[in-house]
UniProtKB/TrEMBL annotation:
Pfam families attached to this UniProt entry: SBP_bac_1
Signal sequence, start to end: 1-23
The keyword Signal belongs to this UniProt entry's keyword annotation: yes
Gene source species: Streptomyces actinomycinicus
Keyword Transport: yes
Source organism, top-level taxon: Bacteria
PANTHER family according to UniProt: ARABINOSE-BINDING PROTEIN-RELATED, OSMOPROTECTIVE COMPOUNDS-BINDING PROTEIN GGTB
SUPFAM superfamilies documented for this protein: Periplasmic binding protein-like II
Family: Belongs to the bacterial solute-binding protein 1 family.
Protein name: Carbohydrate ABC transporter substrate-binding protein
Keywords carried by this UniProt record: Signal, Transport
């Protein structure tokens, strides 16, 4: 996959790790060529990141500044990116670059005429160094606006190696085997899964993995675009499959009621906290960051993962999320903003955050040695190796009213389904009614 440039890239990565991100010049796109061409200019970047994510992205911005002479400023928007950015545009204070966390929001920005198409240099790099699927998700009506800089691997099941060893089970290869292993873990004294039902987005991720594997990528794409109705038999089948897990008190820590009162960090705590209640938790690669940072777990030793297994003989799913960098058309310094995107497209930029941790890059030219541990290398290899079979988080592709709003749409309806999974067909009908309204709007 990366054999053509292994020697060159390994040397570059070693320099990056030893001397800092500016030690390696170039890559296919240079951001000002290292000649301080942007001295005196300030690039403003808006995004949802805060805490450690913001600190680590600042390291990337600092590397860009060192290379080009530009100053950078990051503005944290909170979760409601579109509202914050919209108000800034209306106030004549648009940021130069926005890190957009959802395909649906990127499409919304493009349709409002807010975005500047990517430069030929950025497009050339993305075409050469990324699987075509990432170009597809960054494009609207055939025009490429977004560069996916940070990705998430949402098809990872995390577990306590001690819990599985105590139960005498190994990481399963199929969904049915995973449920059987869960029952064995439960028989040994712990519940199988901690389910974060208080956060509706985690339930959409459960559904998407089951649906992608069971129904296949074509149906997945059609449902994501609402070209297939949520009342389709494939949806009812996936809900039925998920319902069997949700209603099994041996499999869900504390049963449905407790799951609905457990948020995402709480679900990780139930497996990796000081008083474990479950052996496994399904969610994205970012589980590792919580397990390590909050509970001191050594990733690969105290916490490990296996790929979300294939359902009903289908292909094992690879669902992803990600943050796309876009340049705003009305920005005061859009030209320098575009230079930042050209830099973010390089393996050099990705290596800065990869070294810091809590990061995956869809850039296939980033050498896996840039990542700090074997588990992250394994998740990155799985994501990049999936190529065009990767599918972006379905709820992130939907209008926010359906796929991204607390207490409404898909989030709420799947919470209702977790509470009472007895009527998959009825739930599918409610999902279709909510989807139809949101997509029409």
């Amino acid at each position: 996959m990366m054999r053509r440039r292994t020697t060159l890239l390994t040397g570059c990565t070693a320099l990056v790790l030893a001397l800092g991100a500016t030690a390696c010049g170039g890559g296919p796109v240079s951001a000002g060529g290292g000649d301080k061409a942007l001295s005196g200019q300030t690039v403003t970047v808006a995004g949802v990141w805060s805490g450690s994510e913001q600190k680590n992205f600042q390291k990337v911005l600092d590397a860009f500044a060192e290379k080009t002479g530009a100053k950078t400023q990051f503005v944290s928007t909170g979760d409601n990116v579109s509202t914050v950015v919209g108000s800034k545009i209306e106030g004549g204070n648009a940021p130069d670059v926005v890190m957009v966390p959802q395909v649906g929001v990127l499409q919304q920005f493009a349709q409002k005429g807010w975005l500047k198409p990517l430069s030929p240099a950025a497009q050339k790099t993305i075409t050469a160094d990324y699987a075509p699927v990432w170009k597809k998700y960054g494009s609207v009506d055939g025009t490429l606006y977004g560069l996916y800089f940070k990705a998430a691997h949402k098809s990872t099941v995390w577990y306590s190696p001690d819990a599985l060893a105590q139960a005498g089970v190994k990481p399963p290869k199929s969904y049915d085997d995973m449920l059987k292993a869960g029952h064995t873990v439960s028989d040994s004294g712990l519940a199988a899964f901690a389910v974060a039902g208080q956060d509706g987005w985690t339930l959409t991720d459960w559904f998407e993995n089951v649906y992608l594997s069971q129904a296949g990528p074509e149906k997945y794409d059609a449902l994501a675009a609402h070209k297939l109705k949520w009342t389709d038999p494939t949806v009812v089948k996936a809900l039925t499959t998920l319902g069997k897990l949700f209603k099994d008190k041996q499999l869900v820590a504390g049963g449905q009621k407790e799951a609905l009162n457990t948020d995402f960090p709480g679900s990780v705590e139930k497996v990796f906290g000081p008083e474990p209640e479950a052996g496994l938790v399904y969610e994205g690669d970012f589980v590792a960051g919580v397990a390590h940072d909050q509970f001191g777990k050594s990733i690969g030793k105290d916490a490990d993962f296996f790929p979300f297994p294939a359902v009903d003989g289908g292909t094992a799913p690879v669902v992803s999320g990600g943050d796309a960098a876009v340049v705003l058309k009305d920005a005061k310094n859009a030209k320098a903003g575009m230079k930042l995107l050209e830099y973010l497209a390089t393996p050099e930029a990705a290596a800065v955050w990869a070294k810091a941790g809590g990061f995956l890059s869809p850039n296939k030219k980033l050498n896996l040695s840039a990542y700090g541990d074997d588990v992250t290398r394994a998740t990155a290899k799985s994501l990049v190796g999936a190529g065009d079979s990767v599918r972006f988080d379905m709820s992130d592709q939907a209008p926010a009213a359906f796929g991204g709003t607390k207490g409404t749409g898909e989030w709420k309806l799947l919470q209702d389904f977790l509470r009472d999974p007895s009527d998959p067909k009825g739930t599918a009908a409610k999902l279709e009614a909510a989807a139809a309204k949101a997509y029409q709007g």
